[in-house]
């Protein structure tokens, strides 16, 4: 608060005070009060009036400076009343009370909405688990029937998993355990889940893991890898031709891009892992239809299906969005490169940092708040 702004705001009251002082002096002069007494009276009145103005200004300036400073630095502006002390002048008290009441009302509304959202997500999670029980029974009952029934049940199961992990991605702290996870075991489990689709489409799955263990959540990694391989299977084509790849720049270092397709090459998915400059990478490469260049920056956006999704593949646009969200929660990075008609490469980079290796328990596990990662 600038002094001139204060004078402008208090100008009327100050003018009236000065006018009152002047009238007192005139009355004293009219009643023949000695000039020495008038001078002393003028000095006392003016000194105390000026002092009251200065003290009032300093008090207001302190409060408003603190208020504006907190507002500039605070991310959650609605918490300003919690960070600023209640002032001892009337206008400031009124402002503080308004801010406090507004903040209290909003927090109550947020808490109520969060409770309703939590109740809904808990219900959906419970419902999904209940649906999975008869689904698993149906899967067993249909083993001797046509494989197409099994595939439809598997599709339902994958969609249920997608919903489940989408919900959990918003409440990550409820369901995660960071530990050393075997990439070989994870790839094996995902390959078994997709065995029927791979065999039916004649897709060769190649696995070459130079680095076998990473620090992550095993369940989440398995889900993410399953989503990526599902996409590779979904957007695979049988007759292919193409070119070779190149080096891909990434913030974790240079990662070699898998080569493209050659005429007559059979459909294949290649899962590889290795060392990056700042950690370990796990890559899923396929020689499918690829992603158009204009769609590539948006493939991880929520509900984005792109040209490939609109050409007949039944896409919800949620798979890579959930994978990206889970990677962010776990402190990993996701990189996607592609060339339309040639290949698609999806890479998860597991960074190595002090949180993972400094906070690890003796059993190789880590617990903590994902929001700190």
Give the number of DSSP strands: 10
- CATH class categorisation of the largest domain: Alpha Beta
Let me know the CATH homologous superfamily of the largest domain: Histidine kinase-like ATPase, C-terminal domain
Mind telling me which CATH architecture of the largest domain this is? 2-Layer Sandwich
Summarize the amount of helix as a percent range. 40-55%
The largest pleated sheet is described as: 5 strands, mixed
- How are the strands ordered across the major sheet? 2-6-7-9-8
- The rounded Rg comes to 34 Å
Q: What is the count of helical runs?
A: 11
CATH topology of the largest domain: Heat Shock Protein 90
Question: Short summary of the structure?
Answer:
The protein is α+β, with helices and mostly antiparallel strands and 373 residues long. It contains 11 helices and 10 strands.
Would you write up a description of this structure?
It is a single chain. The longest helix has 52 residues, at 90-141. The chain has helices at residues 3-30, 35-73, 80-83, 90-141, 147-169, 183-193, 195-200, 218-234, 306-310, 319-330, 354-358, and strands at 178-182, 204-209, 213-216, 247-248, 255-256, 268-276, 279-286, 333-339, 343-351, 365-366. The model is unreliable at 239-257, 259-263, 354-364 and 366-373 (pLDDT under 50). A 5-stranded mixed beta sheet has the order 2-6-7-9-8, with helices on one face. It has a 3-stranded antiparallel beta sheet with strand order 3-1-10. It is built from 11 helices and 10 strands. Strand 4 (247-248) and strand 5 (255-256) form a beta hairpin.
